[in-house]
Specification:
By secondary structure, the protein is mainly α. The protein has two helices and two strands; from the N terminus they run H-E-E-H.
Amino acid sequence: MTTPSGASPDDDYWRRPDPTATGTPGAATGGPPGPGTGPGGYAGPPATTPPPPGWRPPVHVQGTPPRRLPPQDMAALDADEQQAQRVTWVLGAVAGVVLLGLLCLLCSRAFLRG
């Protein structure tokens, strides 16, 4: 069984700090303030130094330039696409005929038993 909120002093650790309390967030809980926390909370990321002007990472290996692609034979591509479409239609028709035959076989067996 759970106890109502505030019934146990152990719950005080998990409560939010009082917004009207003054001081740092660490002082509200009795612990030391966290690293990088200022009076308003998060102090932001550490400062960085920019690289010198014109600096680039070193290049160790130069890649080869891209090759030229072979020219495409559009007539052959169209013929291959039409042939693939015909094969697809034929396979679909064969599958449809097989499924229709199975449906007729199952229905005839159901009606003949009846």
